[in-house]
Amino acid sequence: MSAPREPLRRIVVAGGGQLGILAAIALRRALPSCEVVVVGGDPGPAAFADASPTAMPFTNKLHDRLGVEEAAIVTRAGGSYRLVTRYVGWDESGQDAVVAYGEALDPALKTAFARDWGRVRLPGEGAPPAGSLAEVLASAARFAPPPPGEPTPISAVDYALRWNPAAYRDLLIATAESLGIGYVAGVIDRIEPGEGDNLRAIGIAGQGEIAADLFIDCTGPQAALLASHPRFAFTDWSATLPTRHVYIGEPTAPVIALEDRLTLTRAGWVSEVAGLDGRRAMLGTPAPLPRAEAEALLGARALGAVALTPGRVEAPWIGNVVALGDASARFEPLGPLHLDLAHRQLALLVEMLPGRAITPLERDEYNRRSVLMMEGVHEILALHFASAPAQTVFGARPLPGRLVAVIDQFERRGRIPFREELPLLSQEQFALLVALGWTPGLPPAALAADAAGEARARAAFAAEAEAALAFAPPYDQWLARALQPRANPG
Question: Residue 190 belongs to a domain with what CATH number?
């Protein structure tokens, strides 16, 4: 009978931004007997995962697992909700389109919506019918998070959270302190090699060194730990991702909305995230712009600019060092993919946590799946730049991975091929392709569709939408009530 593995005794998380602190919480929850220490400060604005004011629905589930309460994010970290993302200017027809979360459509309606979304619409004919309850609710500005464990007309609606990054980080720090997670402020100024591929310790300027069994690199694009390793290698995505400059706008007036926006302009893309602490905008361009022009597109004063070379590390886990988020992949913040990728990597790491002796097999499997995650993000981003309007701004570029086959299957059959570890579900990919201007083909099921069954499905969806609208309160009113101070019981 095999003996149990010796558990990790100390884990050091390098990087004290929101990602590093959440990683420390996750590792401490998974290994209560292991000492967990966070080293260093906030990686800065070029670390888009740490600066992100929002994530995707996966993060809600991760928060639940780690004891980070959604209600606390709303009341203590400026939290708000997003149901859909609106795409503006990406389709040659000039029509806006929305992308919601989840797989909520009746199968009988998927082929019907393929016809309605994909066909050419005449002037004055209006937008295609809503493709999800989330879109219906966002258009009506009605929503409240459904109570857990209780079936409601909106229980199937998936959503994402937004927050104020500084306040969210403070909330995570409070949780980390309650778990006994250590913190050492300072700059990492040296790396001390250990046996084989492992690190023995890291040096902190003016404070000596700290040794560990496992090091988690959350230092942002500099990848301070992983990039120092002799076997570090980088895969460049420059041939397929054209954004080279990202301008960061100063938050403007608060915006209460259930949608965020991604707009294609004459000079690049603009991302707008609504929030109680203000609208946050970023601009991505293929070439540098004069400050006045960048600020006009941002609709805000520019706080700074980041020069970008997109790509990923070849292996995010080398020896006893694991890189998460921006330390493993660098790409433009076109949507909330940075933090989503980082949180998926973190969940995978918790699933595959090693003992003190790390076996090559578990490291190889983590690297395989993490690379698939990064390349999935690569493909989703490249899909945006493959649309016809985007090519007029950014130029034509080769498509990475399996995107040629994906577009071919979508246009001929309305089908989304399965790909492991992709950040979007198949219906989300379908809606994104439509929003970017591709017309879905009709699968055989659509050609032999049962008209009566389709009519029943449409009627059922209409009834579900009516019930959802009747159940969900006006979002602004619910949010105002949620933020009211609770009266202390007398």
Answer: 3.50.50.60
pLDDT by residue, tens only, the chain of 490 residues: 466 789 999 999 999 999 999 999 999 999 999 999 999 877 877 899 999 999 999 999 999 999 999 999 999 999 999 999 999 999 887 788 999 998 655 555 555 555 554 444 444 444 555 678 999 999 999 999 998 888 999 999 999 999 999 999 999 999 999 999 999 999 999 999 999 999 999 999 988 999 999 999 999 999 999 999 999 999 999 999 999 999 999 999 999 999 999 999 999 999 999 999 999 999 999 999 999 999 999 999 999 999 999 999 999 999 999 999 999 999 999 999 999 999 999 999 999 999 999 999 999 999 999 999 999 999 999 999 999 999 999 999 999 999 999 999 999 988 889 888 999 998 899 889 989 999 888 776 666 556 676 777 788 888 999 999 999 999 999 999 999 875 444 4
Strands 329-330 and 269-273, sheet pairing: unpaired
Separation of alpha carbons 22 and 32, rounded Å? 15
Helix axes 426-435, 403-413, angle to 10 degrees: 80
32 within a domain of the structure (yes/no): yes
Q: Is 166 helix (H, G, I), strand (E, B) or coil?
A: helix
How many domains, in total, are found in the chain?
A: 2
- Kindly write down the DSSP assignment for every residue of 67-129, as one continuous string: T--HHHHHHHS--EEE-EEEEES-STT---EEEE-S--S-HHHHHHHHHHHHS---TTS-PPP
Same domain, 251 and 272: yes
- In angstroms, how far is CA 330 from the centroid of its own chain? 13
Distance from C-alpha of 350 to C-alpha of 352, rounded to nearest angstrom: 5
Claim to verify: residue 180 and residue 217 sit in the same structural domain: yes
Do 195 and 320 belong together in one domain? yes
What pTM was estimated for this model as a whole?
A: 0.93
**Domain identity same for 227 and 291:** no
Kindly give, in sequence order, each residue whose CB lies less than 8 Å from that of residue 228, ignoring residues fewer than 6 positions away.
191
Assign residue 249 the CATH number of its domain: 3.30.70
Segment holding 304, helix H or strand E:
strand 302-307
Q: Distance (Å, rounded) from C-alpha 250 to C-alpha 136?
A: 31
Answer with the one of 359, 378, 397 that is the final residue of a domain.
378
* Nearest CA among 56, 49, 53, 54 for reference residue 330: 49
CB contact at 8 A, 444 and 111: no
Q: Supply the range of the domain harboring residue 286.
A: 244-307
In a shared domain, residues 231 and 251: no
Domain stop point among 378, 401, 417: 378
Asked if residue 207 and residue 173 are part of one domain, the reply reads: yes
300 and 329 part of one domain: no
